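Handout, section B. The chain below has 961 residues.
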Amino acid sequence: MNKRIAALVTSVALVWSAMMPTGQAAGQGTVHPYITDYKIGFTDGSSLVTKAVFDDAAKRGDYYVVTKGGKKGILDGRTGKEITPSVWDDADIPDGKNIAVVRKGGWFQYIDLPKRALSPSKFAGAHTYFLSRTYPTVIAMGGSTSMLLDPSGKVLLPPFQGKIEMVDVAVRGTDDEDESVRYLVATTAQKLTVYDPVTLKPLFSLPRASLVPNNGLKPAYIRIASGGKQGLVDLNGRYLLEPKYKALVPLENGFFRVEAEEGVGLWKDGMLAPPSFTDVGVLRDVPDAYYTVSGGGITYHSTAGGTSFALKQSEYLHGGYVLGQDPSTGLYGVKNVRGETVVPFVYPRVERVSGIRLLVRSDGKKGILRGEWGRPVQEPDAWFDAVTTIGDYNMVSVQDGTKVGLYSQKAGLLVPPAEHTLISYDSYAGTATVTGPDGKQRIYRSDGSSQDANEPTIYPLTDTLSASVNKEGDVVIIEKETRQPISKPYQSVYTDHELVVAVDGDAADLYTPDGNMLTTDVKIAARYKSIERPIMLIDIGEAIYTAGTKNGTGELALVKIANDSLQVESDFRYHSFTAWQVNERALFVFVQKDGRRDLWFAGGDGAARRLEGISGYRVDSNSGLVFVQGNGGWDVYAADGNRLTNGGYRSLEVIKTVGGQRFVAYQDQRTGLYGLLGTDLRVLTPPKYESVKPADKVFSQFGLSPDQAPPFVFTAGGHFGYLNSSGQEVFRTALFTKKPAVSYRPLTPQAFAAYRELLRNNPLELADFGKPYRWPEADNSERVFFANLALYFNLPVNSGKREVLQALIAKGIIKDDPRRAILSDDDFFALMYYVVNGKTSQSLTQQQLRDWAEKRGLVRERWIKGVEQSIDSCYTEYLQSFFQELLRTQAAAVKPKPLSFATLSEAQQQMLRSLIVVNGREYDQLPLPLPQAEVKRHLEQLVRQYNKQAPLLLKAAQAAR
């Protein structure tokens, strides 16, 4: 079961009948669960060893923890016999071994399971801990009396008056990194004892002492309390600090803050600062440094150098550098922790601009204190009247009078201040463009590198080729040595599968690594798997497969690239495609303009194979099987195109056993009943079951192993049963002994969450917009999106992407862009602005349009985060937003779509099933479905109820938008 079973009905007498046909039940010497009336019982495979009275159960080693009426009990997993009845508020078996911890109210006890013995003592608490590799789990029973147990049943510490605790102590590891060891601590009124975590022998005891909890910290010593004061001991029990302080607080790098009545101090292998200061602290990135505070000043100390110095108004920077005032002069400068002056103390003031610190001279000039994390702090090397951020912490605009320049914290002064200088910042590229007095532009990066704005950006492609990008974004392929162009300008150029891919709108050229063009007559179609890498290439052996297109036609074909040449494998008859790789084969689904789809199997020694006119498809990547729906139903194909079944099934589903074997559950086309195909895809069982599921999925919380239960659970004719891996029935019992109590949730807007979700994800399932709009399947969202826009704008029949874009440009909705390959986010926002307002967004700036879209709820999370996404899912989201806006703007024209049981889609059925409550539980929480006839009866009734309420539901959903 994926969720817990919780039946809210009173159990009645069970018909104790079970049958065991030919074949052995799995799990000799164990019992496994069965379900009757949505309650759990247990069987040994030949008989029912318990009634089905449990609401839930979980496997723990050789035992089951069962729940009945909200109370826990324990059964022997080998015999099904009761070890303790279901009377406990909680029960657990740590590590699934021999000790169970049970709770009733606020009291805990333990049970020695092999002995069936309940502890006579009751405890106020029970916890499991990791102690050591020798004792990875220990059970601490605690309260006024405590004891420690191993899950095997061994008593590690017998009961005593006191408490058990754990303390983690840092030790130096083998790689000079600090590790920690956990120690066991037992405390009584007389003493505290620390035990070795491996041998459990006492290491030392301290009289009248108790442990100070570490609260997640792992210092190198143990803090103890005695007489209301705290002290510090090592692992030999020797006092390093006598217990006479208010508190000892572990800090980084082995320091302890010492708090006393007189003040605070610092200790590390000795008292470094007596507890008489206002405050103390450590420098996290300098292990041998600390500071003390008193009298309004801070003194910094270096234990390695034996030095100290005091500063006022100080600020620790990093790497041992401290910015502050000289106490005698009040002037600012910088020292390191060794006391060496890094920046002279001659500056009267410090200012800050964003995260940048400025030292101000007596004449008011400001210099940037350079000191990025990990770099030495340096005195300013240039002085200005003003410093202004431009959108990047690393680069700032500096001003000297009316002169403007550019400064980098990493590289210093990049552009000296000059008259009539303009600076703009590109947050996406992280660059600053400086326009000088002569009008020339240069692009700067924070590392100090720069280039003329008109100079192209060069990036490598292959050993002999590079790409050159001009300021307009055009990309040209050039020879690396001569820098001479060998191609026309493209939209983008990148490498994939040792080929150079040059994208230009909806198509691309391919070049070999040395620059030979492979796509002279036939171009590569842009599938736009992602925006950044839009061309889909599938590498199979020595060949690469993809989709090609003839120049200007838009028609697609399967093409193969091999031996530095391009070969056409099919006719140019297709409109769109999708593809994937399975078992060293390339699979392509090509869609014709009329919507018909062909499946192509490519790769291997032979020619590509075509399967015409498929209705649906699904690939199981684990098994490499291809499920194809044709006119006669579903069948299975190998990745090379060989047909493996001839059943014409209504549905097929790969089901995996707990042992890792993969079978196929099939649904008979005529009866709708299920059977099982073996791992060789031969029929194991006839279609006579209403459901067939893996046992470990039905009973997911049990953690069943292959030897604990047969691999499959079935339901049929009001029965529950098991099938073995040969498809034989090995157990059968009644699934119901009484009619289930079925009720419906109210069909109100507030209670019907599934309606709102389906209306958001696919509104065409529930609403009629007055035009024959369509919803995309897995491989055609772009085509369907533009077909729907064509309907919306009343364009001629068969208008596609090209015609729709031309219409949007003609109306002024989007700008003309010859290289537009996909509808960008900003294009879509402009389209939605027109749909909502009936006018173009030309009067808005780009940012104003984006702000409008965000307020309207059109900006999806992927746009905010900039996450790469497939174009199919992108256009699906566009469609969702488009129809949501139609629901708002055309509320009066949109009508509810009447439902009919005969034509219910799976999404509509799922929505209606969410209203069904069985024995007090939601339908999707049932471990097994109701009989098909029952489901049909309830869905028919719900369809009638829904159609009556649909206008109200739609109106309420529209009002909420």
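Note. The longest helix spans residues 932-959. Compare this with the example in section A.
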